[in-house]
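re: ur question from yesterday

yeah so i grabbed the chain u mentioned. its 85 aa long if i counted rite. heres the sequnce exactly as i have it in my notes:
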Amino acid sequence: MNPATCKQSGDGSEELCAVWTDPDFDPEEPAFYYLRVIENPRCRWAAYDCNSFSGAERPDACSDGSVALTMQKRAWTSPIWYDPQ
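ran it thru and got these structure tokens back, copy pasting raw so excuse formatting
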């Protein structure tokens, strides 16, 4: 993503699939597993506003770091519990 234009790059994926094995799995110990995902960075509404101004009109907040111009949404699954009993 280009923060100066808010244009995304790349095609992304419609679906992802993976298989993971816990290398430290002990069948005698309880465990839980969950998945966390992080979205590619995107512009916040403030970035679109800042990008609409020309250089002289642009407010200081657009470049002084006081306003976040990008974001990444996050999600996680419900846990999967393993109980050896």
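noticed a couple things. Residues 50 and 62 are 6 Å apart (CA to CA). also The helical segments are 45-51.
anyway ttyl
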